Amino acid sequence: MEPGPNIDIIKFVGCPICKYWTYHRKLKEYLNSLVSKKDELQSRKEDVELRLSFELQLGKKPRKEVENWLKKAGKAISESQDIEDRVSKVNCLSCASVRREIDGKIQEMIEVHNQGSFPNSLVIGAPSNSVMTLPTPGLVGETTVKEKIWAHLMGDSVSKIGVCGMRGIGKTSIMKHIHDDLLKETKFDKVIWITVSKEFDVIKLQEGIANALNEDLSKLHKDRNTWAAILFKILEARKRYILILDDVWQRFSLEDVGIPEPTRGNGCKLVLTTRSTEEARSMGCEIIKVEHLQEKEALDLFLNNVGRDLLLIPTLHSTLKQVVEQCAGLPLVIVTVANSLMGEYDIHTWNNALNELKGHKVSVKGIEDYELLKFSYNCLKGPKIKHCFLYCVLYPKDFEISKEELIEYWIVEELIDEMETRQETYSVGHAIFNRLENTGLLKSCRGGTHVKMHDLVRDMALFITSTRYLVQAGKQLKELPEQEWNGDAEKVSLMQNNIKEVSFDAVLPKCSTVSTLLLQRNQLERIHESFFKLMKGIQILDLSYNVGIKDLPDSISDLENITALLLHGCTCLEHVPSLAKLQALKKLDLGGTSIKEVPRGTEMLVHLSYLDLNAKFLEQEIPDGMLRRLSRLQYLRLDKACTKAKEVLELKKLETVGVRFNNLQDYNMYLSHQLQRGWLDNYFLSVGCQNISDYSLFSKVNISDFKHGKCVAFEEICGDSILLPADIQELNISNCIDLKSLNDRVLFLEEATDLRRCTICKCQQIECIVSSSSCYTILESIEELWLLQLDRFSVFFRGGDGAVSSLPTPTPPGIFSCLKHIQIHACQKIKKLFWPELVHNLQNLEVVDVKFCLQLVEIIAASDDKAENEGGKDSIVFTLPKLREIRLWWLPELKCICNRRSTMVCNSLQTIEIKICPELKRIPLSLTQLDNGQLLPPISLEKFTVDGRETWDSLEWDHPDSKNVLEPYMELAPPLSITFDCVIL
């Protein structure tokens, strides 16, 4: 039978069909392989991204190769997906070409996958000052200059750059922007910013660079050549850094300082900002000039600061443009003038401003360009605010001036009108700062607590005060400047120099006009008797922080016009002459001195509003009747000298007080009367405490600065009940031998809802912190808890029925919710620190410091001892997100941090210290594990300190690779140089 047509058709198409199915099967196999490789690459990409997210932290940046690999992997995965999508639409005729494309993509993904193995860290350390971005005003007009500088920094052809231009032109502002942009750039490992200034000093520059590198040169002999050699080695080893030297006035040798020559080979860059093109060129710098703003740029900057709503007033347009023209294209002048005119809409005001600017205008090429800034100064309303501004010039150049310190000066100089309270006076002072900052004459810094003057503004202020002020602050002077002394000088500032002796008889006749003399922070050892004899007009004398001076000349007793005598921090000062004649005195500060008795004549200072007698050795009882006579006191500090409550109560104007009472009855009497009168702004009240900051051999309790807090401290009191003010922030109790818990004798404890710090030390009977549920609320606000040398202390809480209980049931969610720092030293009865139910409240805990607790067995106890012994199926995870430090010292019975069914997740952990804990074996630290099994340490970990290699080798870990991952952080601590016998004092 002859084959039919159907058979012929089958023969005709059979071979292609078979070939089609073969190609289709092969294509599917290639596609499956493609999908498999894509999934492998996707997994590795996710692992790298997860690992990177853990290694990235504030101050670190991803490596460039890692960023590039992630982009390459993402692209390969995306293209693979495109191929998958197209395969679904492919026909038989294109199978071969598709297969070749798939094969090529598979090989590419295998190669990319292999490149994604990063054995070392994925990140690089950014500059240590990376978190310290600089205040950067907006750039207008200087963007082109910035782009030029940036191009040189990113390129390889130029290693030294000189940014040149006149004062106020914007050099520093441009570099501040570049500095902050560099912190986001991974090309450089370190960005160093140093302000040099006119008084160039090699040692000071070397110190600045070393500090920026976290290196300490002070341990070495202070020799510029030695320091240069050390600094050279440090910088040479660093490589890939940028050194920005702001405000350079003169040429200097890099070699003399210890700065390696920046080259293409070492990848380093040097940038100078300077007014002198010649100086920059002589140092081999590529010159980039900062020119005056063009008309449109200047107008934009002016409107950005004064407010663009002025454009809605047509009558102002012409005058406004003329005002901008008078600013000569100087950004600093434009900003300050604009701020001075902010909110002014009257045409007459603007015309007057224009006339004033024309009167101040001089050649922009001259050295007196700051004359233009005098317009902003003249716009300050009233002479007192002008004097407040000018007072800033008494500080060294580039100095960050404390607002609080400056307000204190303004008060004693009577530049602020006397108010009813110090708090009201401070409010006026801060309002003045706001005005000066808004005009651009002062710049806020350090988070708003300090201010700084631009050097051009300072020059303008110096010009204004040149006939009345003698300012030689911060110039490393070793003796008083005789030739510079101005016969008409009213205010003399010689602060922060190296002057050791005050004696220059030849210029004494020129001293009669001086009303303010600032000599703080020198090296004074001696002041000649004759020095003050002709200074009859002196009103403000500041000798603070001259640590070498032991006594004052008797001639100080004759300064009858003096209103402020400031000797704070003169630690060796033992003798102060009679003050009986100084009846104009309003402020007397002897805090931190070594005087042993109240200066004679203090009771005569009836105009005093500020008295600090917190001297180191002043422990005598205050003479009867002395305080009663000082009825104007608003600020009183007598931390150690015993004071009678009835005398303190006589001081009706007190707002800030630090006093010590002889006994608890006196304290309670004062407190009860003070509560009726109304409470204080700040206080530090103590009973029996002579040195509240030295409770134990192992720890110094950092008492809050009482000027900014509310603290009560007791030592060696027993019997009577203790009153507490409701707004107390800090409570310190020491050597109260009959106290079993705080609520045993402390009244109104439950009302102390703002208690932030509590220290209990050497109270031999105390068993728990509180034993009443009504007092649990005090533990909701506590941030720091210090329990030191408490022989019977065993638990935080005691049940209401008298039974010892670890914590109330159920646990109030607020207890310890604010706790940041807990320190427990030499508490011999405690066996278990935290219970699981309590750990969940510790989300703000940062430091755990436990030492010399002989019976402590567990840090986090098992909730069920039976379950612990029998073992459990479910693992418990304790998450402490803010924990930074764990210190465990000399705990001979400590067996575990938490039980074997538990782990701790502490991603903020920086420090672990384990010393003399022989029974502690397991470290329950939970480490992140990637999909490929790789472990990652806590991203912030800096060191893991143990007392010996044997201790490290004996530790057990939940994961077999934990030890290897953490070993790079391991440090061996030197042996403790104390024996346990000295713990029990």
Automatic annotation (TrEMBL):
Q: Which GO terms describe its biological process?
A: defense response
Keywords in UniProt for this one?
ATP-binding, Coiled coil, Nucleotide-binding, Plant defense, Repeat
- The source's superkingdom equals Eukaryota
Molecular function via GO: ADP binding; ATP binding
UniProt key word Repeat = yes
Question: Which InterPro entries did the record assign?
Answer: Apaf_helical (IPR042197), At4g27190-like_LRR (IPR057135), Leu-rich_rpt (IPR001611), LRR_dom_sf (IPR032675), NB-ARC (IPR002182), P-loop_NTPase (IPR027417), Plant_NBS-LRR (IPR050905), WHD_DRP (IPR058922)
Q: List the SUPFAM superfamilies.
A: L domain-like, P-loop containing nucleoside triphosphate hydrolases
Q: Which residues are in the Disease resistance protein winged helix domain?
A: 394-461
- What Pfam families has UniProt attached to this entry? LRR_8 (PF13855), LRR_RPS2 (PF23247), NB-ARC (PF00931), WHD_DRP (PF23559)
UniProt domain Disease resistance protein At4g27190-like leucine-rich repeats: residue ranges:
810-923
Residue limits of the NB-ARC domain?
144-308
Ranges in a coiled coil = 24-51
Annotated PANTHER family: AND NB-ARC DOMAINS-CONTAINING DISEASE RESISTANCE PROTEIN, PUTATIVE-RELATED (PTHR33463:SF212), NB-ARC DOMAIN-CONTAINING PROTEIN-RELATED (PTHR33463)
Similarity comment: Belongs to the disease resistance NB-LRR family.
Q: Name it.
A: NB-ARC domain-containing protein
